[in-house]
Hints:
This protein has helices at residues 20-28, 48-58, 72-82, 101-112, 142-148, 178-189, 217-236, 241-262, 268-276, 278-288, 291-294, 298-305, 307-320; strands at residues 7-13, 35-42, 62-67, 87-90, 96-97, 116-125, 128-132, 138-141, 158-161, 192-204. The protein has 321 residues and is of the alpha/beta class. Strands 1, 2, 3, 4, 5, 6, 7, 8, 9 and 10 form a ten-stranded mixed beta sheet that branches.
Amino acid sequence: xxxxxxxxxxxxxxxxxxxxxxxxxxxxxxxxxxxxxxxxxxxxxxxxxxxxxxxxxxxxxxxxxxxxxxxxxxxxxxxxxxxxxxxxxxxxxxxxxxxxxxxxxxxxxxxxxxxxxxxxxxxxxxxxxxxxxxxxxxxxxxxxxxxxxxxxxxxxxxxxxxxxxxxxxxxxxxxxxxxxxxxxxxxxxxxxxxxxxxxxxxxxxxxxxxxxxxxxxxxxxxxxxxxxxxxxxxxxxxxxxxxxxxxxxxxxxxxxxxxxxxxxxxxxxxxxxxxxxxxxxxxxxxxxxxxxxxxxxxxxxxxxxxxxxxxxxxxxxxxxx
Length: 321
């Protein structure tokens, strides 16, 4: 195996024995072969760990790490710490890549030497496939791209230059929106981005997948915890005025995500717990977001004045739709 491959693929593994072989096979069957696959078995109680070992015995490009269950963020951090590739790609263990993915990525890297590559996804359900992909294949400066497109923090849509991630890691314990914090920090360090008008990544929607998982008070609060982490990042790091505006917008989205999540919680004890936590985070928002940006989001402005009324409006809108 090449000790410095072009691409490191990081795949956390937990309770996916039914889907894991297809995921691994989709990576090993790539025609471009200069990559390594890091499988992080996060204490999976099923046969996933054995499946990882079996594939590692067959292919030297695979490295397997077994750890006690600590969550997806810690598993991804283990992969980052162990990775040797020039570029980093994350693949969830119940999803899979399309054929030719690495070849197209290598062509873009060789031609443009970019910091980030963004490509499309296919959401695969029982009712068919829904494709979401960039409008065109092109290279942009970060500011040029974000001036005309909303920042897309979806981790699985990105290939990232490894050097950018030297001091960027996922926050342990966060189960929802952890990729938003990670990608916003990454965008702040990047100079350019390439988009590819193809859907390389296939998301399998099933009962146990992250995309289909049930909302809980813990996950609802993750929105605010991630926002708090980003506030800390804003205070400690030198960030351009342009990227600060991008981050303000995403912090507002995280706060609204908290309220939308509350609407999905049916357990009254959980609902009381999650609402009780909000005043602390409301204070953070008011102290750290300039007023001229606060008033751009009238919904969140109302929520910070009277959250009960805002929630009532959200719930009524949900019933209407």
